[in-house]
Structures are given as structure tokens and as C-alpha cells.
Design brief:
The protein folds into two domains: 140 residues, glycosyl hydrolase (family 31) (Immunoglobulin-like); 224 residues, Glycosidases (TIM Barrel, Alpha-Beta Barrel), CATH 3.20.20.80. 25% of the residues lie in helices and 18% in strands. One of its GO terms (molecular function) is glucan 1,3-alpha-glucosidase activity.
Length: 444
């Protein structure tokens, strides 16, 4: 009875509070949305990594894909360019694996598996009887480890094994691991080196046949200062009876590193200069890099910006980095619309001062970002379709060269072979032109 009286008294108090506009004092369940928000805040940044002053947010968490291959009967493997190392790939036991990640590395170490300007994930294994290949189709940062059961054996040791009748079969083991993407691997069965390359070409395309002038002598330096300088060099070759076919212009010929332009003070009449070269059946190559100066008066920038063609940050704004022009945007060449527009800029009515004897050099297309991690683009930058830069990094240079090559073909109505030199490259770049060897303390 006392309990009942207490319950009645409590109910009366609650009714009074309700009548006074007050709510009964009861425990409220925690707001679900608030709880989820707090959980997301806790998760945000939990996987991020910092390299020097740069942070990789890793919004999807850490990831990797990999596969091991055993190659019995093979102790010699080759390929996976680009590295400043021996032709025969070394074993990596106790050391760093070979790295495939396109980087602007001006001063690099020799006899080292470090990454350089380009990456082709193709490895050949060879012995006296056959050759086979492994093509690891992945454009993310990739590492390759190599081990062998004959590693460390001297020639004398191998001869001794043979004399003693040792029956151990040579074997090379290879481990591929990429930061993201899927496992997409092709085993090329040969059996000859020619067969392996034919099979590889059936997957990635054949080498573009260059224009005839491309196999002649090219004269290039950083930098010919102006039209008078170009004419002086050209006349010097004639004076000394030295044959040459092509002269090159680096970044200083542009209006403040605005590509597709000319410095009006130093190159006031580029068409006349090109006509003088054409009269001698000579060509010119000018540089067109894929970092675009951020300038509201520069039509290349304003068009890319208005068409939403720039690579984005993880927050959705246009990605900006620092390169030769200063603050620069980076076109998203993974977009077919961007590549089509870029190709159209090589038309004679768009690239003012150009002629049919002007060809192109794509430099800095790893891409190079002076203030980025390892002098390249942040991995959590975002491309079309929501793909992070980490997923497509090694493809960037290929797409730049592809779009440029298409532009030179289109401007001639498909009647002339293009010449496009690239620094960065990936599997398939051979379809679109040539690439130049890496630099090492070059004095120009």
C-alpha cells in the first residue's frame, strides 16, 4: 500500500509538471544522428599518414594488392623500367624492392632500384631455351621484389655444381605489390623474346612509326633566348656545314610560362622564324607542359576552369600546385573531354604562330609538383569518376602524350605523323611517340 501511494504521488507530480509546461524528468535516448556524426569524426583521419610536411588522408583506409610468381628454370630477369641499374635485374633480398612510381628525380642514385620518370610493369625471364614475360597492369605505386636460389653463387660455384652433378633447378621468385587497384596480370608465354614483345604489343599497342626527320640530328638546350639566337644557331650549322634537322625551344620562349603562347618581346614573329626553317626543310619542337598557370587573363586556364577540367582536391576544389609558372592547375587528362579539348588547342587557329613544322615536347608530366610530396601530386587528389590520384598516377603522362599526339594528327587532317617527346611514360606510351632518357647532372 505504501508503494502504491508513492506511485500515485509521483504521477501527480508529473501531471503538475505537464500542466506547468514542463516535461517529466525521464532519461532521453542519445540522438542517433549525433552519435553517427561523432563516430565519423573519430574515423576521419584515423588512417592518414604524414611524409615530411605532407599529409595523405587515405580516406578509404590502407590498401594493397599483390601476387607472388615462381619461375623455375629461370635465373635471369629483365625489364620493369625505369631504373638506373644493371640490365639484368638484381635480387632484392636484404634491400629495397624495385619501385615503379613516376617522379621528377633530377639527381638520382645509380645502381639503385629507386623510381625515376617512367614505369612499365613488364618483366622478362630468359634462359637458353625460352623467354617468357609478366605484365602487371596496374598504374598505382608498385614495388617488385626479386629473389633467386642461385643468388650469391659465383661462376666457379656454378661450374662446381655442374661438375658434381648438382641437380638443383635455378628458380627466380618475384613478388608484385601495388598500393591500390585490382590484380590484372598477363603471363606472356613466348617462347622467344620476339614472341613476348609481339604478345605485349597485342595488349598495349605497337610503336608509332616516327616522321623521317625524327631520326636526324636534334639541337636542344635550355634555353635559346630569342629569335635572333635561334637564327644565329641555325646559321652556325650552315657555316660549319653540319647537317641537322630540328631545333628545340624550352620554357623561356613562352609568355611567362603560359603554354601555347610566345614571348612577344623575344619571339615577336614566330611564324616568320618557322618559315625560315621550313625553307631549309628544318623543323622546330616547342615545349608544352601539363601544368597551367593560374591567371584570369590566360585563356587556357580560364577554359579548363570553366569546363571543370582540373584535377580536384579531396574537398572538391581545383587542385593547385607549384611549378615553373608559379601557382598552377593540373588538367584531369583521365577525362576524355579534357583530352579532346587539349588536342584541339594544337589547331593552327588556336596555337597562334604555329605551323606544320612545329612539333611538341611534353615535359614535367609525371606530374611534377614542386611543393608536392616527392615533387609530385598528392595521392588523395581526385580525378573523374571519384578515382584518387593514387589509383592512376602512372597513367598521367601517357594521357598527356596521347592527347598531344591526337592534336598533331588532327591539325594535319590525319595526313602527317606526329612527333611528341615525353618524359613520363607507362605501358602503351609507345603508341604516341618518343620518350627521352633520364637526366643526371646534365650541363647545358
Amino acid at each position: 500500500e505504501e508503494k502504491k501511494e508513492a506511485d500515485v504521488e509521483n504521477e501527480a507530480k508529473e501531471e503538475k509538471q505537464a500542466g506547468d509546461g514542463e516535461s517529466p524528468q525521464v532519461d532521453q535516448p542519445e540522438d542517433k544522428d549525433s552519435q553517427e556524426s561523432e563516430e565519423k569524426e573519430d574515423e576521419a583521419g584515423m588512417w592518414e599518414e604524414t611524409f615530411k610536411t605532407h599529409t595523405d588522408s587515405k580516406p578509404n583506409g590502407p590498401s594493397s594488392v599483390g601476387l607472388d610468381f615462381s619461375l623455375p628454370g629461370f635465373e635471369h630477369v629483365y625489364g620493369i623500367p625505369e631504373h638506373a641499374d644493371t640490365l639484368k635485374l638484381k635480387t632484392t633480398d636484404g634491400g629495397d624492392p624495385y619501385r615503379l612510381y613516376n617522379l621528377d628525380v633530377f639527381q638520382y642514385e645509380i645502381n639503385n632500384p629507386m623510381a625515376l620518370y617512367g614505369a612499365v610493369p613488364l618483366m622478362l625471364a630468359h634462359n637458353v631455351r625460352r623467354t617468357m614475360g609478366l605484365f602487371w597492369l596496374n598504374a598505382a605505386e608498385t614495388w617488385v621484389d626479386i629473389s633467386s636460389n642461385t643468388a650469391g653463387k659465383t661462376l666457379f660455384g656454378k661450374m662446381l655444381d655442374y661438375v658434381q652433378g648438382a641437380n638443383e633447378i635455378p628458380q627466380t621468385d618475384v613478388r608484385w605489390i601495388s598500393e591500390s587497384g585490382i590484380i590484372d596480370v598477363f603471363v606472356l608465354l613466348g617462347p622467344s623474346p620476339f614472341d613476348v614483345f609481339r604478345q605485349y604489343a597485342s595488349l598495349t599497342g605497337t610503336q608509332a612509326l616516327p616522321p623521317l626527320f625524327a631520326i636526324g640530328y636534334h639541337q636542344c638546350r635550355w634555353n635559346y633566348n630569342d629569335e635572333d639566337d635561334v637564327r644565329s644557331v641555325d646559321a652556325g650549322f650552315d657555316e660549319h656545314d653540319i647537317p641537322y634537322d630540328v631545333i628545340w625551344l624550352d620554357i623561356e620562349h613562352t609568355d611567362g610560362k603560359r603554354y601555347f603562347t610566345w614571348d612577344s618581346n623575344k619571339f615577336p614573329n614566330p611564324k616568320a622564324m618557322l618559315q625560315d626553317l621550313a625553307a631549309k626543310k628544318r623543323k622546330m619542337v616547342s615545349i608544352v607542359d601539363p601544368h597551367i598557370k593560374i591567371d584570369s587573363g590566360y585563356k587556357i586556364h580560364t577554359t579548363i576552369q570553366s569546363q571543370n577540367f582540373y584535377v580536384k582536391t579531396k574537398e572538391g576544389s581545383d587542385y593547385e600546385g607549384w611549378c615553373w609558372p608559379g601557382s598552377a592547375g593540373y588538367p584531369d587528362f583521365t577525362k576524355p573531354e579534357m583530352r579532346s579539348w587539349w588536342a584541339s588547342m594544337f589547331a593552327y587557329d588556336q596555337y597562334e604562330g604555329s605551323m606544320d613544322n612545329l612539333y611538341t615536347w611534353n615535359d614535367m608530366n609525371e606530374p611534377s609538383v614542386f611543393n608536392g610530396p616527392e615533387v609530385t601530386m598528392h595521392k588523395d587528389a581526385v580525378h573523374a569518376g571519384g578515382f584518387e590520384h593514387r589509383d592512376v598516377h602512372n597513367l598521367y603522362a601517357l594521357y598527356v602524350q596521347m592527347a598531344t599526339s591526337d592534336g598533331l594528327i588532327q591539325r594535319s587532317g590525319g595526313t602527317e605523323r606526329p612527333f611528341v617527346l615525353t618524359r613520363g611514360f607507362f605501358a602503351g606510351s609507345q603508341r604516341y611517340g618518343e620518350r627521352f632518357l633520364f637526366l643526371k647532372n646534365v650541363c647545358l
